[in-house]
Design goal:
Elements lengths: L2 H11 L5 H42 L3 E5 L7 H9 L4 E16 L2 E10 L1 H7 L6 E4 L10 E5 H7 L6 E12 L2 E15 L4 H4 L2 E5 H7 L8 E6 L5 H11 L4 E5 H4 L1 H39 L1 H9 L4 H32 L1 H12 L20 H27 L3 H4 L4
Parallel strand pairs: 3-8, 5-7
Antiparallel strand pairs: 1-9, 1-10, 2-3, 2-6, 2-9, 4-7, 5-8, 6-7
Helix pairs in contact: 1-12, 2-10, 2-12, 2-14, 10-12, 10-14, 12-14
């Protein structure tokens, strides 16, 4: 082992005369550990939000959606046939999408009404897996059943088996004026996706009932597709557009919900920059630690120089000592951050129960829990950035130590 490393480690372990230097060293180490841990936890939570948001949105939305002009698609069977020939398309389902007003007793709520074929819908979406009461297959053509989001059903005050009135904006023209179309539906099921937007504003009915209520004459609003790789959605949509007619439009989930994912990605980058400043402040405390240490050890440096140590060797001694602070702080931060990120689902509810306060209210935020997704790439990046900052902080004090003049340092010894 080279003597520079031995001396540097000995300086780190030795009991210093100036305890204030030791205190600053421990503070720097703790600051680096805290910053690294905070970075890992925050980025893991941001990754979890991104993954959870994508899973919940695509549990209701579709990877690719093909629609026609005027929200009408007449020859949808042939479009499904063409789409299913694409190697990446796994399933397709027609749908009718419209606005409606739901009424039960004195309660009235607006909702997005979606007409679906239950068997086909189960293949392109995951609503069937999120049913809290009843089944999606309970929707049968001509029976006018309806499946509501749990929050929407709660606002209307209805339970499965009870009836709600669905008012369609497309009215009937009579001598007395335009009369809205109204039909009584029986609640046959409730679903809960976990996103307030859908749970409070989406109602599902059978495709045949939707076509009849909204006077679609056998047409649909569009066709929803499920792919084997959701990240290939943009490419598949572009390829299908080339095969289908010019009057059709294909959109993918990255376009229809791009604002959500772009916001999460921007927030993740901003949080990385902000929290990296915490690590930087702690790392540059190493500068003050080593500067004071160099002043305290000038006599030792002078003796090493008179024994034949080169300026580079003296510089390496203090680089070892400063880098060791950064390495220990980074390791503690990485271990603590990963452990905390893996147990966010336990720690956060415990804090909420202690404080009696809900951090993410369901009626305000799309996701009411804190998900976490620890990615090795983020952990490695954070660790390397912390080590790099710690190493950079050692350069100036070490260079200053290498410039100590032995004669001046030993003059008054």
């Amino acid at each position: 082992m080279r003597y520079e490393l031995l001396v540097g480690l000995r300086y780190t372990r030795a009991k210093r005369r100036n305890h204030f230097i030791s205190f600053i060293s421990l503070t720097s180490m703790a600051g680096i550990a805290l910053g690294v841990a905070a970075l890992i936890v925050v980025l893991s939570v941001m990754n979890g939000f991104q993954t959870e948001l994508r899973a919940r949105i695509l549990g209701v939305a579709s990877h690719v959606q093909i629609s026609g002009a005027g929200n009408r698609l007449a020859d949808w069977q042939s479009i499904i046939s063409v789409a299913l020939k694409h190697p990446r398309v796994q399933a397709a389902a027609p749908f009718v999408n419209a606005q409606g007003m739901l009424s039960a007793g004195q309660a009235v709520r607006g909702a997005v009404v979606r007409g679906v074929l239950p068997a086909d819908e189960d293949r392109v979406a995951e609503i069937g897996r999120h049913m809290r009461a009843g089944q999606l297959q309970a929707l049968k053509g001509g029976e006018f059943g309806i499946v509501l989001g749990t929050d929407l059903a709660r606002a209307l005050g209805v339970l499965p088996g009870e009836r709600v009135a669905l008012i369609a904006p497309q009215g009937q023209v009579t001598p007395a004026g335009v009369i809205p179309r109204l039909k009584q539906f029986t609640v046959v099921g409730l679903f809960e996706i976990g996103m307030f937007e859908y749970d409070s504003g989406l109602a599902l009915i059978h495709l045949e009932d939707a076509q009849r209520l909204y006077q679609m004459d056998g047409a649909v609003s569009g066709v929803r597709l499920k792919l084997d790789d959701l990240f290939a959605a943009r490419t598949v949509a572009r390829e299908l557009m080339a095969k289908l007619g010019a009057d059709l439009f294909a959109s993918d989930w990255t376009r229809s919900h791009a604002n959500f994912f772009r916001a999460v990605e921007i927030e993740k980058r901003v949080m990385f920059i902000i929290l990296t400043l915490i690590v930087a402040v702690a790392a540059f405390n190493i500068v003050s630690t080593l500067v004071m240490l160099v002043t305290d050890k000038q006599a030792d440096i002078a003796i090493l120089r008179t024994l034949g140590a080169s300026p580079r060797s003296v510089m390496e001694i203090f680089v070892v000592q400063g880098a060791l602070i950064g390495v220990i702080g980074t390791l503690i931060g990485v271990v603590g951050g990963v452990l905390l990120a893996l147990n966010v689902d336990v720690v956060v509810p415990a804090i909420e129960n202690t404080l009696g306060f809900k951090f993410l209210a369901k009626d305000v935020y799309y996701i009411s829990d804190l998900p976490s997704d620890v990615q090795a790439k983020d952990v490695a990046t954070i660790g390397l950035v912390s080590l790099a900052l710690s190493f950079l902080a050692t350069i100036y004090p070490s260079w200053r130590a290498s410039r100590v003049n032995p004669a001046e340092a030993l003059r008054y010894e």
